[in-house]
Amino acid sequence: MSEPNLFVKMRLKLNYLVIPFMVALVAGLGSFFNLGPENWVWYESLNQPSLTPPNWVFPVVWNTIWLMATISIILIWNNKKKSLKKLRDRTISLFIINGVLNAAWSLLFFSLHKIEFAFVDILLLEITNIALVILSWKISKPASTLLWLYTGWVGFAAYLNYQYLILN
Prior knowledge:
By secondary structure, the protein is mainly α. It has seven helices and no strands. The N and C termini lie far apart (about 65 Å).
């Protein structure tokens, strides 16, 4: 009789391990594509847009975004209302697509130096961010609110990416 309770408790705890691991994997992939002195030499050689923040801002903002996104996904995942199951499943699927686009941007921009392809990618990333904010609002308003910084930052990053494209 206690086995089902134990299984439910373990499954709940697994959410708190698997979701942060998956978010960290996406963040780690993005960071991996940024690594390498040749990538930073290339980046520093670019004509910089006037609104480019100092380098220390990026890890602060991204770590905050990753934490907020993790909490958002957990809130959505843990909403077990049957009437929201399809919407929740679509939203989780969109988070996965969003993660792929996020990691792909770093690959395209930093590793492959394809600023134009990175710009297309970041526009798609921003579209998925806006869709995530809208879809998650119907599931959990706090989860949606936690994604606003991500959406705003990617919008700003899209502007910077466009400026890099124009200036280089």
